[in-house]
Amino acid sequence: MSSDITNILVCGIGGQGVMTATEILAEAAIAQGHDVKKTEVAGMAQRGGVVTSHLRFGRKVLSPQIEPGTVQVLLGFEGAEALRWSHYLRPDGLALVNTARLVPPVVELGLFEYPDDPTGKMREAGHKVVAFDAMSIARDLGEIRLGNTVMLGAIADYLPFAPDVLMACIDKRFARKGEKVVEANRQAFAAGRDAVAKQLAATPA
Amino acid sequence: MAAVLPLSPNSPAVQRLLLSGNEAVARGVWEAGTRVAAAYPGTPATEILETLSRFPDLHAEWSVNEKVSMEVALGASMTGARAFCAMKHVGLNVASDCLMTMTITGAYGGLVIAVADDVGMSSSQNEQDSRFWGRFAHIPVLEPADSQEAYEMAKQAFVMSETYETPVLLRLTTRICHVKGLVTVGEREAHEPAGFVKNPQRWVMVPAHAKVRIPGLFKRDETLREVSETTPLNILEAGTDRSVGFVTSGPAYMHVKEAFPDAPVLKLGLSHPWPPNKLRELAAMCDKLVVVEETEKILETEIKAAGIDCHGKDILPSLGELSPQVLTPAIDRLLGKPVPPPAPAAAPPKLFPRPPTLCASCPHMGMYYTLSQIKNLIISGDIGCYTLGAGHPWNALDTTICMGATMGVALGMDKGRGSVDKNKRILAVIGDSTFMHMGMQGLLDITYNHGNVTVLLLDNHTTGMTGGQATPASGKDIHGRDAPKVDLFKIVEALGVPNERIKVVDPYELPTLFKTVREEIKIEGPSVIIARRPCVLIDEFKPTRPYLVEEDKCTGCGNCVEVGCPAIHVTRRDRVVKPSGKEVELAFVEIDSQACTGCGLCVQPCAPDAIQHVSRRDIPIHIVKTTSSS
Ligand SMILES: Cc1ncc(C[n+]2csc(CCOP(=O)(O)OP(=O)(O)O)c2C)c(N)n1
Ligand code: SF4
Ligand code: SF4
User: Ligand 2 centre from B565 Cα, in Å?
Assistant: First the structure.
């Protein structure tokens, strides 16, 4: 029944823009005529806690929750958070991970350790991972706030519809902020797509 | 298929929107012509009133607590207006005194209560099942399974309320409130209040009047049970695989359909009172019957009591959320099918936790840092962002029960303590919103009964925990318009705390704060320290130039780490042996200048003055108070 369903998991920490990014992905899926459900688990997310956003779309979506082992694409806004949810990936799933390293106070206080190489650990577990530094890509474009659009660019080629559909939704979001902002986001989107494509080309499957 | 109710017959231009359950409820409430909507914030229900406040032609308000919000709704209903209140599960505990009698007066204008259970406890102090209130208060319970149903049932609830003169409980869960789905919406219908009709036998609840009306409750239960047999809210889906049939309600329905698309299902949209005949019909068509309900064993117990054999909590968990992944193996086991062990890749990797933290520049850090430096304290706490003071690095909060409890608990400790605790100082911490919700009465009890408690009133001018909603002390209403601003100092004084025992301090000024706390805890009798500084979520908060750590000056003392700011990061650790022979741990730090908002708290305990302002030209361009670009 759920065979035509696409499961996308977006994860990160509170304040990173996980929910907004997922919202835009949802809009794109709706524009393609899909039924959509989007659910967040954000326990007090505003305070730097873990945030995951589940996005499911297809002909008819019933349960909003994604099951472990069934995610086609995982979009990670932070290295360790991508690792935390990597068991949600299905065997042929793809993880697109921003290499940002956001260390919580419990680690600063020496109570816990932050893993050295989270994406490396994911690869060891057999997951297909593309890691890139969305924030420095955004900084190179002159505006760190473009990071979210870089992330959306990163996932654009791994959705069951054309990247233009997603780009159009981003355009719409920023339309009222003027042509310059729209253009900057277009560049960020292209840079995100590029960052992933280059790496996938460099690493033979 | 999910229950689809007809939109109003003349439903005009339909639109499809991506709405959360909370937004969908708000839309339905508004379309129903509701005039009054009231709530006190509480996760996961907060956004219902936030959304309603943006609609025209209705009075929306933040009430000071849930009980008042329900009373406001009841009063509006008495005039014949359609009225609504919303709350989280524990809010209904607070409002229950009103509920248990308003069920006897009944509703005049449609009266709907949305209650949101935090199943899975994403941000609540407990998990409780609000469906019990339907039984206790003899009122119908509607349970939507997704956003579309949340919208439809919200509208339907008003009709039901007026038809049967009953308050109606719209029971939501986190998985309804915070899931977005497509909703086909309509337009607002007019609903003019019929007018208040004096009728003491109905509205003045004294024993003589209540005795006459209470039999009506039992009759209403019976009528609604008949409605339950025929309403399109309760659907029996015949299915094709008859080995197991399911009875379910709310979001659990979606999990059942996902996991067992071919099974017979009785979906209860009106889950109390439920339809016995329909249930027997389902039982007769399948080999085994399973009740799939989240949290408590309510339907299951009642179904068994009706003499129908079924499974439920013997095979399913009582705590937390259900999901297809929980259901499938449980049912396989019931049917004696082999259950494959979970794939190794499906096990979550072991990783550090990421508990919520206070924000950079949160004024509560100043208070908890101070408390962590003072010995021999018992600190009674309460609910809000400041509950995080119980965690690292402060460990400066010893109790948390329910909103406002800090006062009574502290007084009880004071009165109950024996010689072991005699030399300890007892403090009660409370936030400003919590104080106005339920804390004021407790403080009155402290002063009235000669309590020896130092109260720390953390006045950050908002309800921080739930996202920064206005309070009567913020001088703004739910729309952000000016409202009378109550003076917390005067309230505290009026509650009996001597004027000279009320101190107002700035929690960013650590030496003054420290001195004030030290002084006040020594004094016998009640005193109140009002720590006043805006929460970073509100406009009043103005971020200032960030700080950085001058690497060559940092001696690794780690004092600043004890402030607990999430913008401070340890770059290197070391151990040294002091001349005294004592071994100390060193932590060298840096400040993330993109996260630092310049409160200056960490600067104060830094002995070598290693923490300095970022020079102007180094200020990252994004440090202007804006929301993120998207
Ligand atoms: C009865 C009840 N209603 C609502 C809530 C949700 N809630 C928890 S704390 C809180 C208020 C916090 O505000 P405040 O006391 O000002 O502290 P702050 O978070 O600003 O530090 C609310 C609304 C609850 N836990 N219990
Ligand atoms: S939201 Fe406000 S009260 Fe809560 S942690 Fe942040 S600054 Fe503190
Ligand atoms: S000044 Fe210090 S405590 Fe305040 S926000 Fe910056 S790093 Fe945090």
Answer: 11
Of A21, A47, A84, the CB nearest to B356: A47
Domain B235-338 has CATH 2.60.40.3500: no
- Are domains B235-338 and B363-532 of this chain identical in fold? yes
CATH class of B547-613: alpha beta
Instruction: State the closest ligand 3 atom to the C-alpha of B566, by its place in the atom list counted from 1.
Output: 8
Residue A7: phi and psi, rounded to 5, are -110, 120
Q: By C-alpha distance, which of B294, B293, B278, B237 is closest to B260?
A: B237
Cα of A49 from ligand 3 centre, angstroms:
19
Which helix or strand (DSSP H or E) is residue B76 part of? helix B66-78
Phi and psi at A30, nearest 5°, equal: -65, -40
Nearest ligand (C-alpha, residue B541): 2
pLDDT mean over A142-161? 95
**CATH homologous superfamily, domain B363-532:** Thiamin diphosphate (ThDP)-binding fold, Pyr/PP domains (3.40.50.970)
CATH number for A6-202: choose from 3.20.20.70, 3.30.43.10, 3.40.920.10, 2.60.120.330: 3.40.920.10
Q: Is B561 on the interface with A (CB under 8 A)?
A: yes
- Residue B467 Cα: closest atom of ligand 2: 1
Q: Could you tell me the sign of the dihedral formed by the alpha carbons of B610, B614, B617, B622, in that order?
A: positive
Query: Closest ligand 2 atom, CA of B365?
Result: 8
Q: For chain A, which residues make up each domain, given as ranges?
A: 6-202
pLDDT tens across A51-83, in order?
A: 999 999 999 999 999 999 999 999 999 999 999
Q: What is the value of pTM for the model shown?
A: 0.94
pLDDT (tens digit per residue) in A103-151:
998 898 888 999 999 999 999 999 999 999 999 999 999 888 899 999 9
Measure B361 CA to ligand 3 centroid, in angstroms: 6
Cβ of B95 less than 6 Å from ligand 1: no
Mutate to test the interface with B, among A65, A86, A172 (most CBs of B within 10 A): A65
Strand partners, A51: A12
Across the interface, whether the CB atoms of B182 and A36 are under 8 A apart is answered yes
How far apart are the CA of B201 and the centre of ligand 1, in A? Answer: 38
What pLDDT band is residue A42 in, cutting at 50, 70 and 90?
Answer: low
The pLDDT assigned to B346 comes to: 65
The domain limits of chain B are 15-193+200-230, 235-338, 363-532, 547-613
List average pLDDT for each run of 10 residues in chain B, which is 630 residues long. Answer: 36 77 98 98 96 97 98 98 98 98 98 93 84 98 98 98 98 95 96 97 96 97 98 96 96 96 98 98 96 95 97 92 92 91 72 92 98 98 96 96 98 98 97 98 98 98 95 96 97 98 98 98 97 96 95 94 94 92 93 94 95 71 35
Q: For an interface test with A, which of B119, B124, B354 has the most A Cβ atoms less than 10 Å from its Cβ? A: B354
All residues of chain B having their beta carbon less than 8 Å from the beta carbon of residue A103 are 569
Question: Between residues 167 and 186 of chain A, which touch chain B (CB distance below 8 Å)?
Answer: 173-174
| Topology annotation, domain B15-193+200-230 | Rossmann fold (3.40.50)
B352/A80 Cβ within 8 A = yes
Element (H, E) at B116: strand B111-117
**Element containing residue A145 per DSSP (H, E):** none
Closest CA relative to residue B173, chosen from B321, B69, B273, B300: B321
The two tokens of residue B472 are 């009567």
Ligand found nearest the CA of A46: 2
Which residues neighbour A146 within 8 Å (Cβ) at sequence distance 6 or greater? A138, A184, A185, A187, A188, B629
| Cβ–Cβ pairs < 8 A, chains A and B | 174
Write down the H helix ranges in A73-178: 79-84, 105-108, 118-124, 134-140, 147-155, 163-174
Cβ-count burial of B590 within 10 angstroms (0-12 exposed, 13-18 middle, 19+ buried)?
Answer: middle
Q: Please list every residue in chain A whose beta carbon sits closer than 8 Å to the beta carbon of residue B122.
A: 41-44
